[in-house]
């Protein structure tokens, strides 16, 4: 029987619950963390900014996993993948991930998830259809007796001085504050898409990063935000697979030429750089004319939502030229996030755990990343580890009563350091940050001079946010999102400036080579004044 979440007597307009574990988020890592904690005997509350089952980047997607069966070959598979990570991944973590993800995929099958079958009748467990997968995980969460708070975004963590002991937020639809006292918290709030218009990422504003940093946790990999994906111009459909079979053209229809003078084809992988350079110069058009007829049918069947924008516009993408763009994906497909310090995804702050895109994936993917595959398996595995770790921590604290004095840790956007100002506009804050972290000539291709200018602008924005931004009621959601985006942008640009080399998706035009001295992670600690630590003998203090 699942443990019961208890309600606490509170003011009529406030929801107050007690639980062993609180999970913040609504994507796959959050669902797996909640189920793992419940199966480990904990009472669990899951609070999502959106609706568990439809929110986040996975729900609208068709995603594969990095599915590696047990056996001697798994070491060779991991070694080959590690060779592509820019020497920053950890093979022990990679092996742990493939093992846990494989077990969880088998568990999904045992629970009744409808995996597709191969021609010989065997289940193809490497494929997860996002809408079905997340709808299924919602049912599994509810069957486990977990209390789900949909449309209840968290605004801040709570601390008793020794550990994180819960979180507080506001219910969007019921317009009431909520608070959950918990012995452990899992942050599975996703990455930060910087308000770029990409699938499922409207609510992915880096909230968990800011909450974790305010509690004393560190972040790593924040410089690796240079991941972009091709999409039809004007569309949010950042699914790049079909562009493997594309040719690219100027506005006048002339072919774009590659570095050796050949027509540019296949716009994913290394060729993204050529597409990015062309887009900086002017509009770019594509045609999926490298796909043979049989492949066209396979693409439509396997990636049906990829073709909806074309069908709605009356475009035949295999024969017609159509305009394209590169969509920035921030840390949703970048690798940065909350630094985890142990096998159970602890953050180094007692009682606080991180999973999925909220956690740094450097130990899994290093300086490179992408959609689905490794990222999807990381969500399955890290959610499971974090849920188990949080429930074990909660059991250790079972005899400790909650202290009457609990500190709310949120500041920027909630409790300004100086006097609130009504003229601080959240839209302007977000657009100013986007102007520094989205453009191709600033973020896809980076330079010391450009990063320094961006850092100065973001520091100015941060001062206004820190000192003067405050919301009331439901507006606190928006002010907190703006503060989180501003903080994530500042961390990203500072880390990019500090990494004096090019590695993976971090491309420095002024330093185009990889520097062996930077074959390590950069860890950022702090919110206002912060420091970056690299290898043990490298420590740079950075003050605002």
Largest pleated sheet: 9 strands, mixed
Number of extended strands: 20
Number of helices: 15
- Strand percentage, roughly? 15-25%
Low-confidence stretches: 535-544
Rg estimate, integer Å: 23 Å
Overall, the morphology is globular
Layout of strands and helices, then pairs:
Elements: E1 6-7, E2 14-24, H1 28-39, E3 44-47, E4 62-64, H2 73-82, H3 91-111, E5 127-129, H4 130-143, E6 147-149, E7 154-159, E8 164-171, E9 176-187, H5 207-215, E10 218-220, E11 228-232, E12 247-249, H6 272-281, E13 284-287, H7 293-302, H8 308-313, E14 322-328, H9 330-333, E15 337-338, E16 352-354, H10 362-365, H11 374-396, E17 407-408, H12 426-437, H13 440-444, H14 448-468, H15 475-498, E18 523-525, E19 530-533, E20 539-542
Give a written overview of the molecule.
There is one protein chain. This protein has 544 residues and is an alpha+beta fold. Helices cover 34% and strands 17% of the residues. The chain has 15 helices and 20 strands. The chain has helices at 28-39, 73-82, 91-111, 130-143, 207-215, 272-281, 293-302, 308-313, 330-333, 362-365, 374-396, 426-437, 440-444, 448-468, 475-498, and strands spanning 6-7, 14-24, 44-47, 62-64, 127-129, 147-149, 154-159, 164-171, 176-187, 218-220, 228-232, 247-249, 284-287, 322-328, 337-338, 352-354, 407-408, 523-525, 530-533, 539-542. The strands form four sheets. Strands 1, 2, 3, 6, 7, 8, 9, 16 and 17 form a nine-stranded mixed sheet that branches. A five-stranded antiparallel sheet has the order 15-10-18-19-20, covered by helices on one side. β8 and β9 form a beta hairpin. α3 (91-111) crosses α11. The protein is globular, with a radius of gyration of 23 Å.
